[in-house]
Amino acid sequence: MKRRALNPSDVAGGVPLVGDRLLLELLNDLHTADDLVRASVREGFFARLLGQVTGHRRRRDLIVKGSLAGAQRDTLSWVSSLTGRLAVTDLAVAEVADEVGRVGGRTEELDARLTGTEQGVRELAFVVAELAEHAGNTFGQHDERLRKIESSLAIDNAVRRWRHPHPDARLGWLCAAVLLAREVATGPAGELAVSKGGGHIERELVERMFQDPPTPWYEGVRSVVGMLAEATRELPSDDHRLMVAELLGEGLPDGTTRGRGPLTAALSGTALAAATPDADHTAVARTALGRAVGSGSSYVAGSLTAEELLRQIVREQFAEAATRRSRLQAAEGNP
Fold first, then answer.
1. Is residue 223 within 8 Å of residue 305, measured between CB atoms?
2. According to the model, what pLDDT value does residue 43 have?
3. Is residue 50 pLDDT above 70, yes or no?
4. 300, 290 in Cβ contact below 8 A?
5. Which of 209, 264, 294, 332 has its CA 20 to 30 A from that of 173?
6. Whole-angstrom Cα distance, residue 319 to residue 321?
7. Residue 223, phi-psi category: left (phi > 0), alpha (psi -120 to 50), beta (remainder)
């Protein structure tokens, strides 16, 4: 029986970091300028959602014409609208701005098929720069007291939305907890943690999540594989699974996801592999966790208490955000 296609906007309603992931989807458009084949073979959840919010002509231009500039005409107005709503975090803006600059430096080397791309990249760079200015994307330039206030408010707002979601995104407790920690880590609290040491911020977030959750945490210890399988099995649809996977980094350039922790990578991999009919969620979760842990230094215990799980989740999100910020700062020092 054929499944009814869901509206991506309905699936994404009430989900944290959708604005960030939509903005980061532009990275795939930028890389399409170097690899035109990607546009014709990849159509993930956020590619579809970006096509919806910017106009379906964006995907037609990328696929049929191989024209980044043509797709950008529809994308520019949407990116511009974010400047008034501040619907993205500083880290996502900075990463896109950095990649726009890199691609802009390569346009002279591109194939003649991409005539007009250079101007398109320049236009996108201007809009992203404006968004960065509005979002306050200036690392280390705020007064320290103001940064602490911004950090505290960001945590308060994120936790409040997590406890009282409206609309309810129906993500389940594990996916919602990971996305909450990710939202905090990529915002003002994560930026403050990098510059001032983030141990106390991470502990505060863990304590608040543990003491006052939307639903009671489980008792005792639980299998990590079992929790991963349950989390993806209980998502309402394959589109929800694909959305969660992409929110956690699937489908983005490797440089953007290099700092992902093993639990995050395992949840992302499970959600992606389970986004198919008749998937065996337990087998998929076991495989994804094994790949994420591998034989390196990454480690996740086979079973965890709720508090141990929360500490792992929060630690991974802050570590990944710090890695992404460090990469951007290194890029600024080596233009």
1. no
2. 64
3. no
4. no
5. 294
6. 6
7. beta
